[in-house]
From TrEMBL:
<dbReference type="InterPro" id="IPR006113">
    <property type="entry name" value="6PGDH_Gnd/GntZ"/>
</dbReference>
<dbReference type="InterPro" id="IPR006183">
    <property type="entry name" value="Pgluconate_DH"/>
</dbReference>
<comment type="subunit">
    <text>Homodimer.</text>
</comment>
<dbReference type="Pfam" id="PF03446">
    <property type="entry name" value="NAD_binding_2"/>
</dbReference>
<dbReference type="InterPro" id="IPR006114">
    <property type="entry name" value="6PGDH_C"/>
</dbReference>
<dbReference type="InterPro" id="IPR036291">
    <property type="entry name" value="NAD(P)-bd_dom_sf"/>
</dbReference>
<protein>
    <recommendedName>
        <fullName>6-phosphogluconate dehydrogenase, decarboxylating</fullName>
        <ecNumber>1.1.1.44</ecNumber>
    </recommendedName>
</protein>
<comment type="pathway">
    <text>Carbohydrate degradation; pentose phosphate pathway; D-ribulose 5-phosphate from D-glucose 6-phosphate (oxidative stage): step 3/3.</text>
</comment>
<dbReference type="InterPro" id="IPR013328">
    <property type="entry name" value="6PGD_dom2"/>
</dbReference>
<dbReference type="GO" id="GO:0004616">
    <property type="term" value="F:phosphogluconate dehydrogenase (decarboxylating) activity"/>
</dbReference>
<comment type="function">
    <text>Catalyzes the oxidative decarboxylation of 6-phosphogluconate to ribulose 5-phosphate and CO(2), with concomitant reduction of NADP to NADPH.</text>
</comment>
<dbReference type="InterPro" id="IPR008927">
    <property type="entry name" value="6-PGluconate_DH-like_C_sf"/>
</dbReference>
<keyword id="KW-0311">Gluconate utilization</keyword>
<feature type="domain" description="6-phosphogluconate dehydrogenase C-terminal">
    <location>
        <begin position="190"/>
        <end position="480"/>
    </location>
</feature>
<dbReference type="Pfam" id="PF00393">
    <property type="entry name" value="6PGD"/>
</dbReference>
<keyword id="KW-0570">Pentose shunt</keyword>
<dbReference type="InterPro" id="IPR006115">
    <property type="entry name" value="6PGDH_NADP-bd"/>
</dbReference>
Length: 490
């Protein structure tokens, strides 16, 4: 490994260092090297470092390091370090090891899926030492890390200035050539936006899977045919990475049994936690992210094997699949339901980012987030360019449904959306994502909500008070007495 002598005042020759060389770190290091940067590479277990240099050393300039000391010494100053290890305690362990070796002005990036609250804590700690800590969301999986991920860095403007040339080099490029990275905001803003990205990812995957279920059990289509339907949808307004990979998965036959691959995969969806974090955080912020919540709950329900087995015989409708011409019409309704539900679910994610930005003073620009998500990430989708344009035209837009174009599309889709959900209910096919999105749409457009009765109930049993529609002030009715009303506040 490296034995290059270092001048401590100048540092080493590597422009950037990557520590943590599993799937993501290894491929990001290669991406950086392929773009002409000299990359110091390090991993707790040295075998990964050796494998990277032996396997891909020809792709660019790597400086392998055995220890954290050797790694830090290999970097030119001010140093730029990318930490790409498992989130949680491992990240703290790596930062604890690096911190004493770093100097004022150095920049450390955590590219893992950290919780934004951890990022805020780590940023504060390293700032005390004069080190810039950047919590950067990275999305795109293995392929994205190598060929261009979407990168969402949060940190100081100085850190962004130091990282910008590197990140813009390695990030995916949108159709207009813009790099899919931008300064999201200070401290935890980048990891917050990545968390919401993953929450939306859960919602989108759930909606697509519900659409598949309806095409299968109500339209009566086989997976190969559904693959064709998805392929067609992928050429229109639903054009997205997740739709494309779904079409590929559905067209795939299991090499062992010859059956459709989707039919041999156990139907228990796992989760590492970012979707759950999104919902927990949304609850704390008081933002209704029903699409993401239903997706998290659907994964959870799918894993409750004993509960499902105990409930499997419960009665439900037994309807035959639709006739061929009705099925084709129904497939079109599903496309409309999927598009409208997707829009509502993404919109809920933006609502959450707006609330957090206000809470933490992050100044997140909603159009910038849409721009960064146009390429490289798992939820990349053609319609995000229109989301970017809508927010560019009005950064204070309270909901995408207030944008004339999106409102028109959802308005046109809503009769089909209702029919698709109603048909699902008639056939006993669960569509928590599609129906939650429709309920959210209906609640938002309703002039008056049943919340009035809830407030009255709260006042009845707990004297929790209520406001009136016809005059200012806070009131309580003496439910246990003569039912007269008293003013309880202003
Ligand atoms: N995989 C993916 O598609 C994506 C992953 N991410 C995030 O990127 C990060 C890296 O992901 P991935 O590449 O999949 O790797 P993993 O999450 O599987 O983490 C493995 C890496 O963490 C290191 N590590 C674990 N514990 C420690 C420790 N205590 N001290 C030092 N190093 C430790 C491992 O070192 P060793 O080899 O010695 O065990 C290895 O380099 C994670 O935070 C993940 O959530 C983000 C986007 C997509
Ligand atoms: O970060 C990612 C993509 O952007 C990961 O793919 C994501 O963490 C997967 O999450 P889960 O395992 O919970 O489905």
């Amino acid at each position: 490994m490296s034995d290059t002598a270092k001048d401590p005042a100048v540092g080493g020759t590597a422009q950037v260092g990557v520590t943590g060389l599993a799937v993501m770190g290894r491929n990001l290091a290669r991406n950086l090297a392929r773009h002409g940067h000299t990359v110091a590479v390090h991993n707790r277990t040295a075998a990964r470092t050796r494998a990277l240099v032996e396997g891909f050393g020809h792709e660019g300039a790597f400086v392998p390091a055995r220890t954290a000391e050797e790694f830090v010494a290999a970097l030119e100053r001010p140093r730029r370090v990318l930490v790409m290890v498992r989130a949680g305690a491992p990240t703290d362990a790596v930062l604890d090891g690096l911190a004493p070796l770093l100097d004022e002005g150095d920049v450390v990036v955590d590219g893992g899926n950290a919780h934004f609250a951890d990022t805020r804590r780590r940023e504060r700690r390293l700032r005390e030492r004069g080190v810039h800590f950047v919590g950067a969301g990275v999305s795109g999986g293995e392929e994205g890390a190598l060929n261009g991920p979407s990168i969402m860095p949060g940190g100081s403007p100085e850190a962004w200035a130091a990282l910008r040339p590197l990140l813009e080099d390695i990030a995916a490029k949108a159709a207009d050539g813009a790099p899919c990275t931008a300064h999201i905001g200070p401290d935890g803003a980048g990891h917050f936006v990545k968390m919401v990205h993953n929450g939306i990812e859960y919602a989108d995957m759930q909606l697509i899977s519900e659409a598949h279920d309806l095409l299968r059990h109500v339209a009566g289509y086989e997976p190969a045919r559904i693959a064709e339907v998805f392929r067609t949808w992928g050429t229109g307004r639903l054009d997205s990475y997740l739709i494309r990979i779904t079409a590929e998965i559905l067209a795939h036959a299991d090499p062992v049994t010859g059956r459709p691959f989707v039919d041999v995969v156990a139907d228990a969806a796992e989760q590492k936690g970012t979707g759950r974090w999104t919902v927990q955080t949304a609850l704390d912020l008081g933002v209704p992210v029903s699409g993401i919540a239903e997706a998290v709950l659907a994964r959870s329900l799918s894993g409750h094997t004993r509960l499902r087995e105990a409930s499997a015989g419960l009665p439900g409708p037994h309807r035959p699949p639709l006739a061929e011409e009705d099925a084709a019409y129904f497939a079109d309704q599903i496309e409309q339901a999927l598009y409208a539900s997707k829009l509502v679910s993404y919109d809920q994610g933006w609502h959450m980012m707006r609330a957090a930005s206000e809470e933490y003073g992050w100044g997140i620009d909603p159009g910038t987030v849409a721009a960064v998500w146009r390429g490289g990430c798992i939820i990349r989708a053609a319609f995000l360019d229109r989301v970017r344009a809508a927010f560019a035209a009005d950064p204070a837009l309270p909901t995408l449904l207030a944008d004339e174009g999106f409102a028109g599309e959802v308005g046109e889709a809503q009769p089909a959306w209702r029919s698709a959900v109603a048909e699902a209910v008639r056939h006993g096919v669960p569509v928590p994502g599609l129906s939650a999105a429709l309920a959210s749409y209906d609640a938002l457009r309703a002039g008056r909500l049943p919340a009035a009765l809830v407030q009255a109930q709260r006042d009845y049993f707990g004297a929790h008070t209520y406001r009136r529609t016809d005059r200012a002030g806070v009131y309580h009715t003496l439910w246990g007495g003569d039912r007269s009303e008293v003013r309880a506040g202003s």
